[in-house]
Amino acid sequence: MTIEEQDLKERDSMLTFFGSEVQRLRGKKGVSQDALAKATHCTRTLVNKIENAVRVPSKDFAKYADAFLDADDHLSRLWPLVILYAYPKWFRPFVELEKQATVIRTFEPTLVPGLLQTRNYARATLTVRRNNDVDTLLDARMERQTILERDDPPELWTVVHENALRLRVGDDRAMREQLKHLMDMSERPSIVIQVVPCSIGAHAGIAGAFHTLTFKEGIKDAPALPIVHVDGFLRGQLLADPADFKAAQRAYDLLMGDALSVQASIDLIADVMKETT
Asked: Which of the residues 4, 35, 136, 212 has an alpha carbon 20 to 30 A from that of 71?
């Protein structure tokens, strides 16, 4: 069995389990697919596809189904395991490590980082790639952001290039919404956002986007050493060699030195938002 076939088997097994649980709970409640569809604000066809492991359920579906079927959040607790399979296989280890990280540093030269994307902005980035199931991938990306809503969120240090602010993703309304979101998120004590202005020219991140994850000692299943994730055209790559992390840290320090101050960065974001008409 190939890696792709094994991956598909695991995905189908998780979807099958979720679908069978929906069927079991619906049978226990004694309600039809039509009734569940109405309660979850979707169609009976979609309910049928979820129960038969053809479609990945949305987070809202799990939430509404739990309430309607008196399931005590059972489906909502299963949902993060299901949505994990919406990510490409190579990206899943990074998502799991990202949840455990206490410090996240990210550099993006052309796009707003996924952890700070609004739903409309994220949808536009996924749509332009002509993905088959945009809604599922969108739910997966939004799920990653829940780590920022925890009582103990990780420290998020973000450096973006000015090009990422000016590249039009979606319509003007989506861009203004995204830029406003960056300004709002920058007010959180755990989040730092800086912008490398175009006037800098060549910079330490010119090779492309990268991210570093640092972990607190003693966290169960967390790596003992920090790691680096480097984006690529087809897939990203996790690097665990201390020398790679040291090189990434140095590049990031240089980028922060080239970047505007936090306040000047927010001022630039505000200026670009005003220019977006």
From this structure: 136
d(Cα 153, Cα 95) in Å, to the nearest integer?
Answer: 15
pLDDT(6) > 60: no
Confidence of residue 3 (pLDDT cuts 50, 70, 90): very low
Q: Give the dihedral sign, CA 221/223/227/233.
A: negative
Q: What is the pLDDT of residues 189-204, one digit of tens each?
A: 999 999 999 999 999 9
DSSP for residue 40 = T
Residue ranges of alpha helices (H) inside the chain are 3-29, 33-39, 44-51, 59-69, 74-83, 92-100, 119-127, 134-144, 162-166, 172-185, 242-258, 262-275
What is the C-alpha radius of gyration for the chain, rounded to an integer number of angstroms? 21
SS3 156: strand
What's the CA gap between 154 and 252, in Å, rounded? 18
